[in-house]
Amino acid sequence: MNAVQAGPKFVVTEASGVWLWDDQGDRYLDGTASLWYCNVGHGRREIADAIHSQLLRLEAYTVYGDFANRPALELSERLADRAPVDDPRVMLTCGGGESIETAAKLARKYWASRGHPERVHLISRTGGYHGLHGIGTGVIGMERFRSGYGPMVEATSVVAHDSVAELEAEIHRIGPENVAAFFAEPVIGAGGVYAPPDGYFERVAELCRRHGILFISDSVICGFGRLGNWFGIERFGVRPDMIVFAKGVSSGYLPLGGVVVSGEVAAPFWDQPGNTLLHGTTYAGHPTCCAAALANMDILERENLLEVSLYVERDLDRALRGLESHPAVAEVRSGTGVMGAVQLTTEAEEAGISAPAVFREARRRGVILRAIPGAVVMSPPLIITTEQIEHLVATLRSSLDAVSERAG
Ligand SMILES: Cc1ncc(COP(=O)(O)O)c(C=O)c1O
After folding, report:
1. Cβ-proximal residues to 299 (8 Å cutoff; 6+ apart), any chain
2. Any signal peptide, and if so, which residues (predicted)?
3. Which stretch of DSSP H or E encloses residue 261?
4. Quick check: CB of 216 below 6 Å from ligand 1?
5. Could you tell me the domains of the chain?
6. Is 342 close to ligand 1, i.e. is its CB under 6 Å away?
7. What's the number of CA atoms in the CB half-sphere (13 Å) around residue 372?
8. Is residue 257 within 8 Å of residue 95, measured between CB atoms?
9. pLDDT, one tens digit for every residue, the chain (408 residues)
């Protein structure tokens, strides 16, 4: 707030495909699909039409108790059909953070319902981002998001994102009988684009299974094509107990998220009379948001974007690798999903070649990227072309050059 209050605001007025326009009439390539979510690109009339007709038919109605609506039922069925989860059920929410709260509460209540109220501990990974609601802030793998808010939710811990051994040691330190769930993004997104080491998730899934720990995939960024499939985690050949999704499910045309829950985790709430899950929000199952998601899924399927994204991933990786030799660049992380990170060297940062400076320069040159501490990240819409990827990476290079030159 302090940093942006005085200056002019970057006012986005229009968007179409991979392009944005500001209130000065200047055009920008949306290299981040807004905040990792606009998978099908901007300005899709088909989604706008679906929203419009749903608004006229039934704009909104609660799904508490036995209330339901057609779009929520259809969307839940379509998601369940595609999810790599055994005997799946779907709980809808309004976004990613809300879904994390839902999954964490479901995990703890599942264990309490099964006679193990002591199983409350939640383990997550360094760099993992799980939204900024209560429990999500508690399990986030980046300390800076936690400080200043007083005590967080109890019984959480964070382990190195790339170490099965560390996870195993932590499980034994806590006592497996006290651990409710393990949260992981298939590829860490907001924390800097870190793909798992080879075999990581197979070993993690086995470890969780051995100790009865629920494995929760936070697929908020990785779903709906970004990793070439529906929920991201399929890429690693494992079946989680729950999958948290949001963002790409509606490409952000309207806010939506949810949790796919295995039949086993859902069972106590289905099978034990009186074991009511007192959890849910006003706009859960919002029919107009669900109509937007259905139209978005139609586009993903009709345009074969899950497969197309694998080519986009390859092109983006190839183009970004060309930056590895840049003197300001320490590392390029890409090649698993339509996302990438360009990590700056410590010396470059100390010399003033910072991620925010590169972000600002690229935006001045017509490409939207995202700055995180020490790196510039990108996650374009899945419809980006090879030429547009080349334009994006060339602009990133010229921005690095310009900022380096200014830094002397
Ligand atoms: C992996 C992951 N989980 C959860 C969230 C939180 O989603 P929301 O911002 O919709 O609450 C995000 C948001 O970026 C995310 O990237």
Report:
1. 40, 44, 46, 47, 305
2. none
3. strand 257-261
4. no
5. 12-30+304-407 (3.90.1150.10), 46-302 (3.40.640.10)
6. no
7. 19
8. yes
9. 998 999 999 999 999 999 999 999 999 999 999 999 999 999 999 999 999 999 999 999 999 999 999 999 999 999 999 999 999 999 999 999 999 999 999 999 999 999 999 999 999 999 999 999 999 999 999 999 999 999 999 999 999 999 999 999 999 999 999 999 999 999 999 999 999 999 999 999 999 999 999 999 999 999 999 999 999 999 999 999 999 999 999 999 999 999 999 999 999 999 999 999 999 999 999 999 999 999 999 999 999 999 999 999 999 999 999 999 999 999 999 999 999 999 999 999 999 999 999 999 999 999 999 999 999 999 999 999 999 999 999 999 999 999 999 998
CA 182 to chain centre: 16
Q: Are 320 and 334 in contact (CB under 8 A)?
A: yes
Mutation pick for ligand 1 pocket among 221, 231, 370 (CB with most ligand atoms within 8 Å): 221
DSSP-based three-state secondary structure for 56: helix
CB 161 less than 6 A from any atom of ligand 1: no
How many other C-beta atoms lie within 10 A of the C-beta of residue 62? Answer: 15
Contact 128, 183 (CB under 8 A): yes
From 289, 309, 349, 111, select the one nearest 224 (Cα to Cα).
309
Q: Which atom of ligand 1 is nearest to the CA of 222?
A: 1
- Whether residue 130 has its Cβ less than 6 Å from ligand 1: yes
Three-state DSSP at 201 gives: helix
Determine the distance from the C-alpha atom of residue 45 to the mean position of all C-alpha atoms in its chain, rounded to a whole number: 25
DSSP 206: H
Query: Which DSSP symbol is given to 278?
Result: -
